């Protein structure tokens, strides 16, 4: 027999139905719907101005919606109080801590706000700031201050973590360190809503993704299912006397064998398996939405 408690455990941590946001005559969100299950990492992807930040700000309780329904940890974010907010971790796109305190002092101070905070040393190492822990935040570089933003977002051991472009300004080594930290959070059961322009990051960290463009959700699914089966069909590419040739096929080995049998291995032979970035760009193109920066504040 299923108890109400078990049913509650299976309820989505985030549930959005027909979410709408309008500014005068401009429609920023036009009927967006999705769920994020407990312990899931969900990537919300799309070009600047697509509606990602507006969606996240509504879910964080910072922006009112014009219509639709939203539930975050079982609470309408428009009515969420201090106790509810303490269960969230938030890394905004632009915060830029710049106080006259050191990295360690700031993290220790924020840790005191939570009943079960993370170990400060663990967080400092996790965001790659161990050599800067005693440096004043205002003396850090922009990328280093961004790491402080991330550290403050996770110090309280949140149930639900919002990561809005978290690795902007990170070098490749720091990004990999951060990915390891997120994998640790996932292992602990933290639910994560991620936005990022790094499609490799989304593919590596996320269980599912939704792609938003023009205020509408144009696709949603597991990372390896986005775009449908046709979008994942490999491409065999080679060169001949006429130039570069390519063929989409579900049997690339057979095509290669056919080419070799016809005259030896052709020049520039390669088998390209579409990445999440390839599928993403194709979806945007098919939906007639530009990938240029539009309305970046939304």
Name of the top-level CATH class of the largest domain: Alpha Beta
What is the ordering of alpha helices and beta strands? HEEEHEHEHHHEHEHEEHEEHEH
- CATH topology name of the largest domain, in short, is Rossmann fold
Tally of separate helices:
11
- CATH H-tier superfamily of the largest domain: P-loop containing nucleotide triphosphate hydrolases
Please indicate the count of domains: 2
The appropriate CATH architecture of the largest domain is: 3-Layer(aba) Sandwich
Count of strand segments: 12
Percentage of β-strand residues: 25-35%
| Structural class based on helices, strands and sheet pairing | alpha/beta
Share of helix among residues? 25-40%
Arrangement of strands in the largest sheet? 5-6-7-3-8-9
Round the mean pLDDT to the nearest integer and report it.
Answer: 87
Please explain how this structure is put together:
This protein is α/β, with parallel strands linked by helices. It has two domains: 4-225 and 282-286, Rossmann fold, CATH 3.40.50; 233-273. It is built from eleven helices and twelve strands. It has helices at residues 4-10, 52-60, 82-85, 103-111, 120-126, 142-154, 172-187, 199-205, 228-231, 252-263, 276-286, and strands at residues 14-23, 26-36, 41-45, 67-72, 88-91, 160-164, 191-195, 208-213, 216-222, 235-240, 243-248, 267-272. A hairpin with a 2-residue loop joins β1 and β2 (26-36). The longest helix is centred in the middle third of the chain and has 16 residues, at 172-187. Residues 1-8 and 289-298 have low confidence and may be disordered.
């Amino acid at each position: 027999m299923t108890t109400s408690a078990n049913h509650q455990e299976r309820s989505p941590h985030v549930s959005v139905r027909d979410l709408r946001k309008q500014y005068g005559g401009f429609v920023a969100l036009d009927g967006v719907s999705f769920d994020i299950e407990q312990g899931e990492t969900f990537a919300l992807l799309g070009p600047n101005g697509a509606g990602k930040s507006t969606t996240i700000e509504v879910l964080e309780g910072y922006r009112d919606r014009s219509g639709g329904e939203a539930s975050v940890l079982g609470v309408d974010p428009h009515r969420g109080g201090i106790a509810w907010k303490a269960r969230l971790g938030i890394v905004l796109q632009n915060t830029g801590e710049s106080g006259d305190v050191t990295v360690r002092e700031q993290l220790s101070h924020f840790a005191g706000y939570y009943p079960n905070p993370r170990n400060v040393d663990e967080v400092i190492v996790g965001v790659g700031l161990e050599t800067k822990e005693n440096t004043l935040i205002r003396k850090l570089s922009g990328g280093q201050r961004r790491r402080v933003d991330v550290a403050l977002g996770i110090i309280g051991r949140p149930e639900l973590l919002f990561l809005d472009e978290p690795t902007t300004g990170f070098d490749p080594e720091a990004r990999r360190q951060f990915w390891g930290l997120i994998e640790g959070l996932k292992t602990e059961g933290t639910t994560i809503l991620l936005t990022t322009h790094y499609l490799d990051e989304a593919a590596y960290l996320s269980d599912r993704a939704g792609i938003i463009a023009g205020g509408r959700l144009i696709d949603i699914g597991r990372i390896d299912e986005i775009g449908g089966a046709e979008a994942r069909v490999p491409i065999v590419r080679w060169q001949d006397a006429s130039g570069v040739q390519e063929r989409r096929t579900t049997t690339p080995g057979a095509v290669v064998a056919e080419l070799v049998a016809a005259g030896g291995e052709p020049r520039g032979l390669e088998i390209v398996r579409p990445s999440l970035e390839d599928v993403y760009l194709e979806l945007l193109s098919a939906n007639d939405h530009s990938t240029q920066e539009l309305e970046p504040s939304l």
